[in-house]
Each structure stands twice: as C-alpha cells, then as structure tokens.
Amino acid sequence: MNIYFACSITGGREFESIYQEIVAALTKDGHEIPTSHLAKSEAVENERLLTPRDVYERDVNWINNCDVLVAEVSIPSHGVGYEIGFALNIGKPVLCLHHKERKVSKMITGNPDPALTVCSYSSIEEAVSQIHTFLQSL
Amino acid sequence: MNIYFACSITGGREFESIYQEIVAALTKDGHEIPTSHLAKSEAVENERLLTPRDVYERDVNWINNCDVLVAEVSIPSHGVGYEIGFALNIGKPVLCLHHKERKVSKMITGNPDPALTVCSYSSIEEAVSQIHTFLQSL
C-alpha cells in the first residue's frame, strides 16, 4: 500500500525515534511511504530549505495519491491536524496513533467520521500492531 | 460579524493572555465570538468535562455558522489545524495570526487558498490591527 505517514515537524520532534520505528516497520512490510524522510533527524533542516508552497503542494499531492494516512499525534501540530481533515475529506482511511500518556484534541478524538480510527499505544511494538490491525481491517 | 476564534487548548496555553486580549478587542467591537470561553483560564478544565463528540459537534456547528474564522497559531494544535482546513473547505475566510518569533507549519503558510491570510505580529496591538485590516478587506 501507499501510506502517507504524518508527524510533527515544526511542532516538535520529541517522538522522532517513534516516527522512525513506525516508518521502518511499514517499509519492512513492503509498503511505500512517500513521507519516510520526514521521520529522519535531518527532516527539520531539510524542510527548511523548501518554500512553504512547495511543501504544501508536495504533501497534498501525496495525500491525494495515498491509500491511507497514518498520523502519529502525540505532539500537537497544525500541519498534521490539517492533513487529517484533508484526507478524510477526500475519503481516505485515517489512523491516528498517540502515546497513551499524551492527550489528543477532541476535534480528532470526537470526529464521528467512520473512516477515522484513533488508537493509543504504550510501546513501539503496540503502535506497529495497531497499524497492522488497522490495515487488515480495510 | 460572527467570528469563530480558534486557539490551542490541549496543545498548550502559553499564549492564553493573547487569546483573551484578542477576544476582548473583538467583543468590544461588537462582534459575536461563540468560542470566547475558550480564551479563558478555566477553558482547559471546562472542556475536560465535555465528551469529545460534544466538543466536535459544537465546534463544527459554530464553524458552519460563522462569517469568518480567526486562528491564533503560535502554539501547535491538531484541533486548530483541522478547523482551519474545515473552514476553508466550506468557503469561510480564515485569518491565521502568529507571534513573529513562532514558526508555523508550511501546510498553513504554503496553502494557496485565496480565502486564507497568514500574518505575524509582535504586540497585541499589532495583532488586533491585523484582524481589523482582515475584516475590512472582506
């Protein structure tokens, strides 16, 4: 599958190692992750070199062409919130994952869209397992 | 006008006093702000008492009925990012304001939607002035 993986960039990188492990697991499963570079440590610096318009158009194009969007939402992010809404609006299945000790906006957890799934996790193994369950349910 | 004022709740309240001053200025101008209580210090605690579904449906209903959405985006927030996309998608004019020393996601600053305006400010007076200019431009 083509999986758009969404994570915080400007908002903070405290969960960067989690992002990297999720991307590694999905890549190992044979999925295509157009955003895989955004999980890397150099992502913040590399994204700074692109114009805002280029980033917007690249990301929207990737969402239009993905099969599903998987978002790590432990760290608040305007961009990821926007992307979740954008993907749901064009009918893409969306999985939002967050660490069980991190609160998530009620605009995400309260969204009744049947294409949206929100899960918490306490370990990287559990996060990857939640993604597998979500993908199998499609 | 009916102005939906969007600000971070779960994501952090460091800019709470700015939220309050913006809401006070718009109320003084005679505008109706359905979200005015979200600028108050007790907002985090009060919102906790509501179910996620109730918050989602209340906020979406307010966005559907507003004339414009004004978002303070200095503090990252999934909810505010989602709301900005939701409002643009139904054709509402949107103003995103951020402190000049705070970075904003390129999914916001790079969005080519002509209904979206993004401005920075260095003082509360400048923030209110930017809102006045935006409202007069409509």
As a whole number of angstroms, the C-alpha radius of gyration of chain A is 14 Å
Report the oligomer: homodimer
Q: How many strands, what sense, and barrel or not for the largest sheet of chain A?
A: 4 strands, parallel
Shape of chain A: globular
What percent strand of chain A?
15-25%
**Strand line-up of the largest beta sheet of chain A:** 1-2-3-4
First CA to last CA of chain A: what distance? 11 Å
Number of helices of chain A: 6
| Secondary structure category of chain A | alpha/beta
How much is the average pLDDT of chain A? Answer: 97
Question: Can you describe this structure in just a few lines?
Answer:
The structure is a homodimer of 138-residue chains. Chain A is built from six helices and four strands.
What do you see in this structure?
The structure is a homodimer. Chain A is α/β, with parallel strands linked by helices. In chain A, about 45% of the residues lie in helices and about 15% in strands. A 4-stranded parallel β-sheet of chain A has the order 1-2-3-4, with helices on both faces. The first copy, chain A, starts with a strand and ends with a helix. At the A-B interface, α3, α4 and α5 of A face α3, α4 and α5 of B.
Sequence-ordered SSE layout with sheet pairings:
The structure is a homodimer of 138-residue chains.
Chain A: E1 3-6, H1 16-28, H2 43-48, H3 52-65, E2 68-72, H4 78-89, E3 94-99, H5 106-109, E4 116-121, H6 124-137
Parallel strand pairs in A: 1-2, 2-3, 3-4
